[in-house]
Amino acid sequence: xxxxxxxxxxxxxxxxxxxxxxxxxxxxxxxxxxxxxxxxxxxxxxxxxxxxxxxxxxxxxxxxxxxxxxxxxxxxxxxxxxxxxxxxxxxxxxxxxxxxxxxxxxxxxxxxxxxxxxxxxxxxxxxxxxxxxxxxxxxxxxxxxxxxxxxxxxxxx
Length: 157
Fold this sequence. Notes:
Layout: H1 2-9, H2 16-31, H3 45-54, H4 60-71, H5 82-103, H6 108-114, H7 132-138, H8 144-153
């Protein structure tokens, strides 16, 4: 009876090896307690599995998937890509920085006051419309005699 059943299944799966593997997987499922889709008729699990395949009572794709899953020793777990992990880490770091600066943020008015230019010498008025270079030229930055004395002292070098 099994030979006739195999001949009936060849049109469903032309590769005999693949047919054997799929039928063996279905026979294991039946042994584990999977419900039968055809009557047993005092047949073994392997014959019942072949008859189910021949009559299209089971999905061959599902059996192939189940077979692969049972034979796998290492199951791949989809891990996020390296780039996604870097982005997530950067977002976490930015969130931490934001939380630090939110509590110690200066108001805009405080920031404007702290950024004002305060000069020590009141003779320079930066708010005037006059040119800064003209004011610096007008100030006494030292006499030329001191520069000449320095040059005379360093002639030996």
